[in-house]
Specification:
The protein is mainly beta. A 6-stranded antiparallel β-sheet has the order 6-7-8-9-13-12, with no helix packed on it. Strands 48, 49, 50, 51 and 52 form a 5-stranded antiparallel β-sheet that branches. A hairpin with a 2-residue loop joins strand 36 (448-456) and strand 37.
């Protein structure tokens, strides 16, 4: 395993630079530690031992002199010499290639660096990696910055940072002031750390908004009028350890200007029938400020909502699926603006469905309700459903034919996160009829973990619990949580980055990954890195499913730009945090591109199922179900179903009759309070 970075400061007797090799450091060398290129075994070096600003940086044989003795500070600087100078990005350049140089320390963001567990050294301002030019290994080869690509000329070994594994304390007393329609001031009390807090990362609802230096305890944020957000902050030290999140402060900014004018009525409503599905289309309404949504009514009851954003107008089409055969329906549409002014309704369209289902989605039947959030779902051999209740920490058995519910037991040692952690993934052993094992992923007081417990009859036998894998980092959001048994008999698990993107690129860690383990918790011998990691570079994956060829498909939350659907390959790097969907440096060699992306406003998708080689994806913020047939190694253009019909959709799973189980996640989704929800479980009949 590659050495982690450790905060330096003491004179070193030796530093490992390769397998079994060591370079002795003379006693007269300046305080600090060497930084050694993995590819060449040569040291990061100030050219000519100069102290002059703008001196170039190169690699050179490790010689113990003070121009190779670096110190990593709590502010994220890499300092050299007793009268310190800093490793600096010339001109504060943020595009590749950028020039690395020596410069007087000034506290600028172009002198701040992240020393990652995968051996990369990343400029905080640019996001670029410290790179040996041209992947050369000779003495005096220049060192600059380049797009991170995972190659060995961007990997470094040092003792800088490896002694600090302690995360900062939780920042206290988060609060807001000066809330107006488009801005707010967010403040918090200082965190503490054994070495020092280097950064604070500010989020809303799992989305990173900004990072500020560790000596800053407030920041001004851009917000959206009328949008309800939950703000919180994490502390991060120079070694990359991240605190647990602060408590959440909920805000709803006022509108920027009064608006009492309703939109005009949508026009030209048309309806066409395909079997038991109806497709609607209309012309856009107009508004003095902007149309934000359309509500679709069937026989005077609202059956769907198509939403837009402050910068994008809502679509003007809707598919109403799963209707009764040979039945007449009447539709109309109304428009809404951001201040809930409602237009007159459009003209009506009346249609009669066909005698039989001729569309992909044929019927929807509600099979259950719950006061908590159904998260993981699995079907027992007798056709009944087991599902986890995320915030209540127990498992329910549901008879979908009768609606009868039985609580089979509470899973031990589960603790929620005041966010999206808790009792999550569920899978049933392939040999359940004889071994009775349930596989469960949950958040504990200290970590995320995978356990197995036997279900004997209708009771969870907690005395049989075995912890298969622990030590998966937890946080308020980004905990992943989905489990899936593969056709190879292995257990696959989706883990989030625990609100630290650097975790995703560390192949020696468990976060931001798809993990693969044997059913007894051991490491499969054919895993690519000799540990549990199957693929990496993931932000917050929550959907996993296999197709008829045994290929693994994955659904992943983006930050603020794109969600993505990926086809997972053994050892593959999917790019986070350098890229999100196709945004950022996703074209870099070595990063695997997604098969489909979705704007986060239309996505925030959690569950993924494959039925007859068609991918189904359940989306929360997008309040829809995507259907995308697999074509070779690609996905066809997704169709949208249930757009706003049932609200936020969390989990979709195959049902034994060739249909789907589908759940909602509408109330209490981000607060970890048990039994404060009003959720539904559906069966979807497919053609």
């Amino acid at each position: 395993m590659r050495a982690r970075f450790v905060l330096g400061g003491a004179v070193l007797a030796a530093i490992v630079v390769g397998a079994g090799a060591a370079v002795l450091v003379p006693a007269e060398a300046a305080s600090g530690a060497t930084i050694v290129s993995v590819a060449s075994g040569r040291c990061l070096d100030v050219t000519g031992r100069s102290h002059t600003d703008k001196t170039a940086i190169n690699i050179y044989d490790c010689n113990g002199q003070d121009n190779q003795a670096w110190t990593y500070t709590a502010a994220g600087e890499l300092r050299v010499y007793d009268q310190p100078k800093c490793l600096d990005v010339a001109g504060q350049d943020t595009t590749s290639p950028a020039t690395a140089q020596l410069y007087t320390c000034n506290g600028g963001a172009n002198q701040q660096w992240r020393l990652n567990a995968d051996g990369t050294i990343v400029g905080v301002q640019s996001g670029l990696c410290l790179d040996v030019t041209g992947a050369a290994t000779a003495n005096s080869t220049p060192v600059n910055l380049w797009t991170c690509n995972g190659q060995s000329n961007q990997q470094w070994r040092s003792t800088l940072g490896s002694g600090d594994t302690q995360a900062p304390a939780v920042p206290g007393n988060p609060r807001v002031s000066d809330l107006v329609c488009d801005a707010v001031t967010f403040a918090w009390n200082a965190s503490t750390d054994n070495v020092g807090v280097a950064f604070y990362d500010v989020y809303h609802d799992g989305q990173l908004m900004t990072s500020v230096p560790g000596n800053t305890l407030s920041t001004s944020l851009t917000v959206v009028a009328g949008a309800t957000w939950g703000l919180y902050v994490n502390a991060r030290d120079a070694a990359g350890n991240v605190s647990q999140a602060s408590t959440t402060v909920t805000i709803t900014p006022p509108q920027c200007q009064p608006d009492s004018q309703a939109p005009t009525a949508p026009g030209g409503l048309t309806a066409s029938v395909s079997g038991t599905s109806v497709s609607l289309a209309w012309t856009a309404a107009t508004d003095n400020i902007g149309v934000r949504a359309y509500d679709v009514f069937r026989n005077d009851g609202k059956v769907g909502t198509i939403t837009g954003t402050a910068t994008s107008t809502p679509a003007t089409t809707f598919i109403d699926s799963g209707l009764a055969a040979s039945t007449t329906y009447r539709y109309y549409v109304v428009a809404r603006d951001a201040q809930a002014n409602v237009s007159p309704h459009s003209g009506t369209a009346t249609v009669t469905t066909g005698a039989a289902c001729g569309s992909p989605v044929c019927a929807v039947t509600q099979v259950g309700t719950d006061t908590d959030i159904p998260w993981g779902i699995a079907t027992l051999p007798d056709g009944s459903i087991l599902y986890t209740r995320r915030d209540a920490h127990d498992i329910v058995k549901l008879n979908p034919a009768t609606g009868a519910r039985t609580t089979v037991g509470t899973v031990p040692n589960v603790q929620s996160t005041d966010g999206e952690g808790g009792l999550m993934g569920l899978a049933i052993s392939g040999g359940f009829a004889s071994d009775h094992w349930l596989y469960i992923m949950h958040t504990s007081p200290t970590d995320n973990r995978i356990v197995r417990i036997k279900l004997n009859g209708d009771r969870l036998d907690t005395s049989s619990e075995q912890v298969l894998l622990s030590g998966i980092l937890r946080n308020k959001f980004h905990d992943g949580g989905r489990l899936r048994l593969g056709p190879d008999g292995k257990l696959y698990a989706a883990t989030g980055d625990a609100q630290n993107g650097d975790n995703a690129q560390n192949t020696g860690g468990l976060n931001g990954k798809i993990l693969r383990l044997n059913p007894d918790g051991s490491v499969p011998s054919d895993n690519p890195f000799g540990n549990y990691v199957w693929s990496y570079g993931h932000r917050n994956p929550q959907g996993l499913a296999f197709d008829s060829q045994g290929r693994l498909w994955e659904q992943e939350f983006g930050n603020s730009v794109m969600d993505e659907t990926n086809l997972i390959t053994r050892g593959g790097n999917y790019g986070w945090p350098a890229c999100e969907g196709t945004s950022g440096t996703c074209g870099t060699a070595g990063y695997i591109a997604p098969k489909r992306t979705y704007p986060t406003a239309d996505g925030s998708c959690s569950g993924l199922a494959v039925v007859r080689d068609v991918v189904y994806i359940a989306c929360q913020r997008g309040t829809r179900l995507y259907r995308a047939p697999i074509s070779g190694s690609s996905l066809q253009t997704p169709q949208v179903y249930f757009n706003g019909t049932y609200g936020r959709l969390r989990t979709v799973e195959p049902a034994p009759d060739g249909g789907l189980w589908l759940t909602t996640s509408n109330v209490g989704d981000k607060d970890s309070v048990p039994n404060n929800s009003d959720e539904k479980l559906f069966h979807v009949t497919l053609s």
